[in-house]
Amino acid sequence: LEVDLYQFWPSFCKHFFSLFSFTSSGRMKNVINDIDDFIINEISDHLQDNGEISFIQAYKEKIDESTRNEDFTYQHRYLVGHIKEFLIGGIDGPSISMQLHMVMFAARQDDIQRRVQREIDVAIGHERLPTWEDRKLMPFTLACVWELERWKRTEPFGLPRGTQEDVVVDNIFIPRGTVVLFNLWAVSRDDSLWRNPHHFDPTRYLRDDGSLIREKPAHHVGFSYGKRSCPGESFAMMQLFLMVAFTLQRYNVHLGEPLSCDLDDPKIDLGVLKRMRLRFERRLRNTIACDNAFE
């Protein structure tokens, strides 16, 4: 597993390089500052709206309550941070996953892509747009979405957590305040949990009759693990399913250049896959009715 060395630099190094706008750290800092400014303005506008109660309004009430009680668990800067996580997590994560889906469909056009398109043709046709309800008739397509979240992870270790109290795990003492990382990549590649774990195989989630298993295995940790797993998992699954169905309903996806690596190779990281060029060819079937739905 390859991880950018930058991730292990001391924090003062990251801060130093972020002072210069020509560095990647500096550019990222400017982007984050712009996002913060946007969120602050949106919060201000939203609090002036007397409509239905929202997350922002509920959090603001908690801030006021904490201030009165001199308990600073809830603060305005935390509200900005939470909304920023919603925005970045809801946009960046699914977009990267969608790129990887398209690369896989292009590389395995004859078996994976064609099978998904057959499901689309039968369950949806070409006279309407896909809906989330269509997943009930498209088990292989949904299995592809599940499998990609296991096969190529965007976050090998997920987000760091911290112990709130002293704890002993397998006779190992972990003091309060310890940063804990889950090795999600290792769980996803454990051959005692997965058959041929390095291989992209959506059929691992299907029964013998081709139907989808009732729920994902407990060791499928595409969205982290435990009570603090990603709260946007359901939304992300819905979003990815609809984007895959929408795209393959209209297009055949081809590699823009010959494949120079084995996609199942665990050493092939996301950076390599994201740089691959793809070509989208309009399918011969009529999709004009679906396109008109956007007009």
Helix and strand topology:
Layout: H1 11-18, H2 24-47, H3 55-68, H4 76-107, H5 109-123, H6 139-151, E1 161-162, E2 167-169, E3 172-174, E4 179-180, H7 184-188, H8 233-250, E5 251-255, H9 270-274, E6 278-282, H10 288-292
Antiparallel strand pairs: 1-4, 2-3, 5-6
Helix pairs in contact: 1-2, 2-4, 4-8, 5-6, 6-8
Question: How would you sum up this structure, described in words?
Answer:
- It is globular and about 65 Å long.
- The model has no long low-confidence stretch (mean pLDDT 83).
- It is mostly helical and 295 residues long.
- The protein has ten helices and six strands; from the N terminus they run ααααααββββααβαβα.
- It has a two-stranded antiparallel sheet with strand order 1-4. Strands 2-3 form a two-stranded antiparallel ribbon.
- GO terms for molecular function: heme binding; iron ion binding; oxidoreductase activity, acting on paired donors, with incorporation or reduction of molecular oxygen, reduced flavin or flavoprotein as one donor, and incorporation of one atom of oxygen.
- Belongs to the cytochrome P450 family.
- It comes from Rhipicephalus microplus.
Brief overview, please?
By secondary structure, the protein is mainly α. The protein has helices at 11-18, 24-47, 55-68, 76-107, 109-123, 139-151, 184-188, 233-250, 270-274, 288-292, and strands at residues 161-162, 167-169, 172-174, 179-180, 251-255, 278-282.
